Amino acid sequence: EVYFKNLSKQKQKEVMEKNGNNHKLRVCVATCNRADYSKLAPIMFGIKGEPQFFELDVVVLGSHLIDDYGNTYRMIEQDDFDIHTRLHTIVRGEDEAAMVESVGLALVKLPDVLNRLKPDIMIVHGDRFDALALATSAALMNIRILHIEGGEVSGTIDDSIRHAITKLAHYHVCCTRSAEQHLIAMCEDHDRILLAGCPSYDKLLSAKNKDYMSIISMWLGEDVKTRDYIVALQHPVTTDIKHSIKMFELTLDALISFNKRTLVLFPNVDAGSKEMVRVMRKKGIEHHPNFRAVKHVPFDQFIQLVAHAGCMIGNSSCGVREVGAFGTPVINLGTRQTGRETGENVLHVRDADTQDKILHALQLQFGKQYPCSKIYGDGNAVPRILKFLKSIDLKEPLQKKFCFPPVKDNISQDIDHILETQSALAVDLGGTNLRVAIVSMKGEIVKKYTQLNPKTYEDRLALILKMCVEAASEAVNVNCRILGVGISTGGRVNPREGIVLHSTKLIQEWSSVDLRTPISDALHLPVWVDNDGNCAALAERKFGHGKGVENFVTLITGTGIGGGIVHQHELIHGSSFCAAELGHIVVSLDGPECLCGSQGCIEAYASGIALQREAKKLHDDDLLLVEGMSMKEEEIVSAAHLIQAAKLGNTKAESILRTAGTALGLGIVNILHTVNPSLVILSGVLANHYVNAVKDVINRQALSSVKTVDVVVSNLADPALLGAASLVLDYTTRRIY
């Protein structure tokens, strides 16, 4: 480290000798508006603090000198900088033609100023049309240009202006690694690029601990608390003025509906700003009790306001850049900052066609606290920039060198992208297997894990936690944001408390079990639990045939028989959470014994266990196998063998399946006469074998008023997991979106 420090000092000494021992670098800093001054001021203080190396000349132009935009040149004077020249360069009109005329006026006035100052180097910031005039003048007058914040990507005409200044500039100070890569890809000489970070971060990262309550009270009122107000700053988009004004209207409507104290800053001087101000006045923002509309806030105070806000909304680069230093939630509207690198705190609303989308974003973001982001700086930009300035050799030729390296693409957040990747952890507790899956908002099973279901409570709960932790970790890798955990299990469940009250005999040691508490505590996520039949109905309501249907019934035909009833779009649980135990509807008083202890239940006839029982009886009497069938000696007889025998013409197997289908059909007729649904969905592995029999029974046994009911087979591949995911996705999306 000492070696490299000495080497750096030696290089600076050599540069000083080349430039002339007594020659100080004459630096001209030109500032056009309040935004660029916040970035340039830290550099100006640094230059002023080293008079042995630098001479500083300050030129002020643009909207700094306009009363409607706050006469912000005064803050430069308050910072004790001598302003060498004031140039009135803005042609009023706030339209496209006025912007062009303003650039032309600046080009007319700047040559005289630069001839008098004769700077060695001019520092130009950003992507404003004023800055383009500065860079053009300096480049044509053979004055070296140091461009701050080149290489970044955003929307509108600003991108074109920024890159045009990059091509005119001789030296570049960029804020992020991606910006550096973009500059290299734009053929700029790597040796003339400094990755320093954003100069404003030098002040931002040390600002939050200062006294702020008096500032909040001054700008928003005595009764406003931290994290309970909004800062709004929205500018026109010059490439689509009409749309940006419409979005500004929607933003104000959403803020009025959201009903929180809001500080609204007037837009900048770009084309379209006049129309945006008209919108503010039309909606009465300046006189609304919840709003404070201001032309300008001093940067030091603005820092405190955004640092302690509940949210910032708009399309200013400040929102996607500086505000990240505090972890304040940001809603970035429209395309003005498209392509900018952003922290986790920024939520994009690219295309709001109604105020609802903006309102939903406010509900999602307001009051959150995100980790502080240092994407744009670490607080040490100014020392790096001063060191870079000292290393400039004025005897080097002005001609630029070019090269052609690759560029690394940048991917930013988008509200539609977040909606696509919001996901749930779904858990299915079956009699044999325990399954966990990551399920997306669209019902896609992104990743699935399967293990045998342990026999004891302790082993089962430990395995659930282990599989959920593994799935949650994998969710990060597949870009899924987990909203919560949904659990589908057999038995009677209290979904309000997340407790399994009584289990089926298929799952041992699974009664009076609190599933919600241990899983929520371990994963720090909300947890929902429900019966597997109810979950199947929820899966159909969200992803299947039941989508948009007001009244329908789902029956699961698998190892057991279960189901769920949706009435007026809501799932029915019953007074003791025993509704929709459809497998235990009695269809015969002297039928076979059911696992529940009763006789003649649908489950005793039509479940997989019932069919397996009948298949074993046939097999024991050597009546199961027919020509075309074979079984290994150790093979266990199952319902599948009975179905295969029936297909191959075994009349006794056909009779058993016919009886099972009739029992199921009679049970469904009872359901039709009780709750009168418009749709019956058969789900599970046996559904296709029963659907025709069920329709026949309905035609023969049901009242004519319910015979028109639709009976369909589910098209969902995994209703148990999708239903468990629906527990999470339905609740969270209903509450937030």
UniProtKB/TrEMBL annotation:
Key word DNA damage present: no
Q: Which residues form the active site?
A: 532
Q: Pathway it belongs to?
A: Amino-sugar metabolism; N-acetylneuraminate biosynthesis
Biological process terms from the Gene Ontology for this record are: UDP-N-acetylglucosamine metabolic process
Detail which positions bind an N-acyl-D-mannosamine: 492, 504, 532, 581, 584, 603
Q: What is the name listed in the Swiss-Prot or TrEMBL entry for this protein?
A: Bifunctional UDP-N-acetylglucosamine 2-epimerase/N-acetylmannosamine kinase
Q: Which Pfam families match?
A: Epimerase_2, ROK
Annotated catalysed reactions: UDP-N-acetyl-alpha-D-glucosamine + H2O = aldehydo-N-acetyl-D-mannosamine + UDP + H(+); an N-acyl-D-mannosamine + ATP = an N-acyl-D-mannosamine 6-phosphate + ADP + H(+)
Q: Which gene encodes it?
A: Gne
EC number in record: 2.7.1.60, 3.2.1.183
Give the subcellular location: Cytoplasm, Cytosol
Q: Where is the UDP-N-acetylglucosamine 2-epimerase domain?
A: 53-390
InterPro entries assigned: ATPase_NBD, ROK, UDP-GlcNAc_Epase, UDP_GlcNAc_Epimerase_2_dom
Please state the protein's primary subcellular location.
Answer: cytoplasm
Q: What is the organism field in this record?
A: Sitta europaea (Eurasian nuthatch)
